[in-house]
Design goal:
Layout lengths: L7 H22 L3 H10 L4 H8 L1 H4 L7 H4 L6 H19 L9 H21 L1 H9 L7 H32 L3 H25 L6 H4 L5 H6 L5 H18 L5 H8 L4 H29 L1 H19 L9 H22 L1 H4 L5 H32 L3 E2 L2 E2 L2 H22 L8
Antiparallel strand pairs: 1-2
Length: 426
């Protein structure tokens, strides 16, 4: 059985997918953290609004329910994924073109929000079928290891790319020409998008596509997802994690650049340290997950995440260097959380319904994450409007948000440890 995965076209498809995922990652880096904060601040959008916009990645996951209807269309998986992926990446690039469009400032803000939301929606509507398609070329007993290799490639190139872009932004900003940096970023994203298309087109079409095209009834899907107690436990655990991380994640960009006054290039150097450590430990953690189970790997990630949130509670202008510790731990937690939160479904859900399970899980988790950002945004505004105080205690709003995220991450860890890990495997 495993011999089929050694075929030349399978190996080629794995390489092409790893490269495609890396290129997609480089694109999304430009609409996260300090980069997103820089362009949206330039457009005159407030800190709390930027935090909510940064969480569109979570809200857009709701659109993954649309992937359930894609199983009935006649177009090939490769065609659908290529078109949607290209639309997504071009819209992200256009966000950096908005400052040059001769329209009212209010319309520019609306356009930026629309582009980002539609771009994420276009990306995530095909994500479940893209994941299913790509992982059909990966041996079941090597999923965690392959995910780690793919992530290491993304992180390695991501380190170089963000350092270059961070330097370019600081350079142009120092010359009083931030618009020049936006042009550089937009052109770079367009070139990366073209390379992304070439990678997708070079992948082998989905195996057993004829079988895949059989449309499933609503009752079949419900019975094999919500009718599965273990699936429901997975969804709850992952949704709780998404709520915890998005309660503070989208607000960290402005915290670093505006409150702690750290330059974009310095932020990227800090991120590079985090990426580097994450890259170095990706393989060991993947082997740990393959050996002891995805639940164990997930728990490890949650422990590290809780530690990151806790250290950030004590980050102030005087202890700005805690951001370095926070960043390293925050990046490192994804080694245990990212792939395991997806692969864990293979342990509890029938493989025939894995794309539907992924779509439903991501939808619910996405709603949870976006709800967290809305609540956190209100809380951040409250703290800022009261002179950065909360019940008489001097603090930045992001410190309070991190305290809440810490408690939620601990709750998620306890649930995975004492409930999810005890569930019966499929």
């Amino acid at each position: 059985m495993n011999g089929v995965f050694e075929k030349k076209e399978y190996k080629h498809s794995r390489v092409a997918y790893a490269m495609q995922a890396t290129l997609e990652y480089l694109i999304t880096l430009m609409v996260t953290d300090a980069f997103l904060a820089k362009i949206l601040t330039h457009l005159g959008i407030s800190d709390s609004a930027i935090g909510i916009i940064a969480t569109f990645i979570s809200l857009a996951m709701v659109i993954q329910l649309g992937s359930l209807s894609l199983s009935g269309i006649k177009a090939k998986t490769k065609t659908v994924v290529t078109v949607c992926s290209t639309v997504s990446q071009m819209l992200f690039a256009l966000v950096y073109v908005i400052p040059f469009i001769p329209i009212a400032a209010t319309l520019k803000k609306v356009l930026a929000i629309a582009f980002i939301l539609v771009a994420y929606a276009s990306m995530y509507v095909v994500w479940p079928i893209m994941y299913r398609w790509a992982y059909k070329f990966v041996s079941p007993d090597k999923r965690a290891s392959f995910s780690a290799t793919k992530e290491m490639l993304s992180l390695g190139l991501g380190i170089v790319f963000t350092l270059v872009v961070g330097w370019v932004i600081d350079r142009f900003e120092g010359l009083g020409n931030i618009s020049g940096a936006f042009v550089f970023i937009a052109v770079s994203m367009a070139v990366i998008s073209v390379c992304n298309v070439l990678c997708l087109l070079s992948m082998k079409s989905e195996p057993d596509e004829g079988e895949r095209m059989k449309k499933r009834s609503f009752s079949e899907i419900v019975s094999n997802t919500f009718g599965n107690k273990s699936f429901n436990s997975c969804v709850f655990a992952i949704s709780l994690w998404e709520f915890a991380r998005f309660f503070q994640l989208g607000f960290m960009g402005t915290f670093k650049t505006k409150d702690l006054l750290i330059s974009v290039s310095a932020i990227q150097v800090i991120n590079m340290v985090g990426y580097g450590i994450r890259l170095a430990l990706s393989k060991p953690v993947a082997r740990f997950s393959d050996k002891y189970g995805y639940s164990a790997g997930f728990q490890l990630g949650l422990v590290i995440a809780a530690s990151a949130f806790l250290i950030n509670v004590f980050t102030t202008k005087q202890t700005w260097y805690f951001v370095v510790v926070y960043t390293v731990l925050h990046q490192l937690c994804y080694v245990g959380v990212n792939s395991n939160s997806y692969n864990i479904l293979y342990s509890y859900v029938d493989n025939a319904y894995i794309s539907e399970a992924l779509a439903i899980k991501n939808c619910i988790a996405g709603i949870s994450g976006f709800a967290a950002a809305l609540i956190a945004g209100k809380l951040l505004s409250f703290v800022q409007q009261n002179g950065n105080t909360f019940f008489g205690i001097r603090m930045f709003g992001q410190q309070l948000l991190s305290a809440v995220s810490f408690l939620l991450a601990v709750a998620a860890l306890l649930y995975v440890r004492f409930v999810l890990s005890k569930q019966k495997n499929e």
